[in-house]
Design goal:
Length: 474
């Protein structure tokens, strides 16, 4: 092996997932193994995961872990080397990773400081004969890990802080400074202080040896006020040690040739069969392009723009199926669209993994009108399945989709439709462009073939992470 990495996060597929963070954390170990790096993943043993500990080995004891005893269990689960931090006083609760029916847990600062504290100690001291060369922390939940490592004086283990979504920053009141085992002398504007309080994400950003985020465009955007959400100055000050590395998708799971109705770029006939089955399932009849939205229903995702553009799209022959949940007002707006256009629009509130595969299999296009999108996986699924992405020119969307234009059509490289700015006028114009391309079968077939040929796996990204780790260790 070239080196060892301890990855610390609050989520990891297949154990616990609330969003794309879990997909990335779960995919990296296998991807990195292919380029010679051994990665172990440290996550909390939430209530649903405690049963796994019985089949694992206790390798670390932490008696005074923010109010109780902590034990780290190590083992291989579904081919992944996993470290589970079992601390019942912090993680053995009903609800999700971050909260229950009443909202976020009030002790989240301590819960994830504990995860970071143990990660930093294992990085310094090793566990069961294994010691990492690099500590890789993900998002605010692991943000204190690089800080604890740096403030301990350790210099032989390097740290990477990855920002998956800067909107979530791990804020805590300043009176918790000492309870969180942070040095008081570091509470100043260029250190831990953040608008009079603390931010675990900022702590990671100012102390890590390197900062990454999940697309090159998002890395640049984070230095601007409209995207940095208060941390743009911190990112800009460390610009020489900031880079963007695109996420990938698991091409073993997201594989059109392995779906119940299989198809591929070389044998696309199955896609028409999947499309017909999808329309029958939802009772719609769509003569033009069938678009899908698979998303959290929030303003960040641009869902509020759909009621402004879908009626014209439907009138021109298009159709839409929406799968997702989120803001109650937007859920209602999606239902209203379906009620107004029952022959062309269908909505399913919630999430269904099997249905999402059927949607990508049968769709002609996937709509991703996000106002900001660090990387995005939805457009990558669309590329993989020949559901042409219609995306806003932001973050990873801009980095992964080549928009239709006279130049890209002439060169034969377009893979979707890209629009800017993120407003109803530009979005509507993008849908008009989609309709125009769909009306030209040869051009449409070329775009679909381009999309399906576009690499969306982890190979390139894993090589970039491996290169970064090697440079840091050197």
């Amino acid at each position: 092996m070239t080196g060892r990495v301890l990855s610390v996060a609050s989520e990891c597929v297949p154990f616990v997932k609330t969003g794309g963070l879990a997909d990335v954390v779960g995919a990296l170990p296998e991807a990195l193994a292919g380029v010679g790096w051994e990665m172990r993943v440290l996550i909390p043993a939430y209530r649903a995961l405690r049963g796994l500990c019985a089949g694992m080995t206790a390798v670390w004891e932490e008696p005074g872990l923010f109010g109780g005893h902590g034990t780290v269990y190590a083992g291989q689960v579904e081919g992944m080397e996993v470290l589970l931090l079992d601390a019942p006083h912090l993680y053995d609760r009903d609800g999700g990773p971050y909260g229950g029916p009443g909202g976020d847990w009030g002790d989240n600062p301590q819960r994830f400081a504990a995860l970071s504290w143990v990660a930093a100690r294992i990085a310094r001291e090793g566990v069961a004969g294994w010691r990492p060369d690099v500590l890789h922390a993900h998002d605010w939940q692991a943000g204190f890990a690089p800080a604890y490592l740096a403030y301990s004086g350790a210099r032989d283990v390097k740290s990477v802080m990855t920002v998956h979504n800067i909107a979530f920053q791990g804020w805590a009141p300043v009176h918790l400074l000492h309870d969180l085992r942070l040095p008081g002398e570091q509470f100043y504007p260029d250190g831990l202080e953040y608008y009079g309080g603390l931010s675990s994400l900022k702590a990671g950003l100012v102390t890590a040896d390197w900062i990454t985020t999940v697309s090159p465009t998002y890395a640049a955007e984070l230095m601007r006020a409209e995207f940095g959400m208060g941390l743009q100055g911190v990112i800009a000050a460390r610009a020489a040690r900031v880079s963007g590395i695109l996420n990938g998708v698991d091409t073993g799971i997201w594989a059109p040739e392995s779906e119940p109705v299989p198809f591929s770029a070389a044998h696309p006939a199955g896609k028409a069969t999947a499309r017909a089955a999808l329309c029958a399932e939802f009772g719609i009849d769509v003569p033009g392009p069938l678009a899908i939205v698979v998303s959290r229903l929030t303003d960040q995702k641009g869902i509020d723009l759909l009621p402004q553009v879908v009626p014209d799209f439907v009138a021109a022959g298009g159709g839409l199926i929406v799968l997702g949940s989120g803001d109650p007002g937007l859920e209602g707006a999606m239902r209203a669209l379906a009620e107004a256009h029952p022959a062309r629009v269908a909505v399913r509130i919630g999430y269904d993994e099997a249905l999402s595969h059927r949607l990508f299999s049968g769709a002609d296009a996937v709509l991703v009108p996000s106002r900001f999108e660090p990387c995005g996986l939805t457009q990558m699924y669309g590329l993989r399945y020949g559901a042409l992405p219609v995306v806003a020119a932001t973050g990873g969307l801009a980095d992964t989709v080549i928009g239709v234009s006279p130049a890209t059509l002439t060169a034969g490289v377009a893979t979707g439709v890209v629009f800017h700015p993120t407003d109803a006028l530009a979005f509507g114009q993008a849908l008009t462009k989609l309709l125009q391309v769909y009306s030209q079968p040869q051009q449409w077939a070329r775009l679909r073939a381009n999309a399906m040929a576009h690499p969306v796996g982890w190979e390139t990204s894993a090589a970039a992470y491996a290169d970064l780790y090697a440079r840091l260790r050197a």
